[in-house]
Amino acid sequence: MIRLTINGLEVSVEDGMTVLEAAEFLGFPIPTLCHMDGLSPYGACRLCVVEIGEGARAKLVSSCSYPAEEGLIVRTASTRVLRARRMIIELLLASCPQSKIIQDLAASLGVTRQRFRQEHEDCILCGLCVRMCEEQMMAKAIGFRHRGDQRSIGTPFDIQSDECRTCGACMYVCPACQLRCTYTEPEKAVCGGCENLAPPCVDKDPFDDMMCYMNPCVACELQKD
Asked: Is the pTM of this model over 0.85?
């Protein structure tokens, strides 16, 4: 067993767990987009960032690919973490503004609009379809091509692969291919209609270092009464 501290709580988890697996096992929710049970971790979306360490040496890491280590200090919802997640979700909205999954994640993080020029490229290069095709369907019909801003997903030489069985698994896991929202204007980039959250304690003292991570939020539930 490995002993570490998550959100101020000393815990023990099994050897070989990632920080994401340890946090979720203990009930600390961490948003993810490119992660899926049964597929290898990829760390593409960076929404699962957490803060490890203390003081000037503290840093952000992707929890889906960072191993749980002895003595590790983890904060899953600090001010720095939430600021990074909000920036990341705005960038994702600029690439795929009509994805309901990204819209819901944005609403849950308190993002009401995105400040970047919308590209409408749809594909966010999360790699879910590539990993699903290779690891679960055993086909390897699609993969990544090129590098940098030319990086894309497709078949070799843009020719339909003989390995493809048209099973549809790639579309099933794709956040851009699933349910769509209709808003396309920057000022209405996040409708928030499906998940309208406004935690009363976020961004207020004494929660500067540790934001609310309860799900559902205790304070929010009390407000309903």
From this structure: no
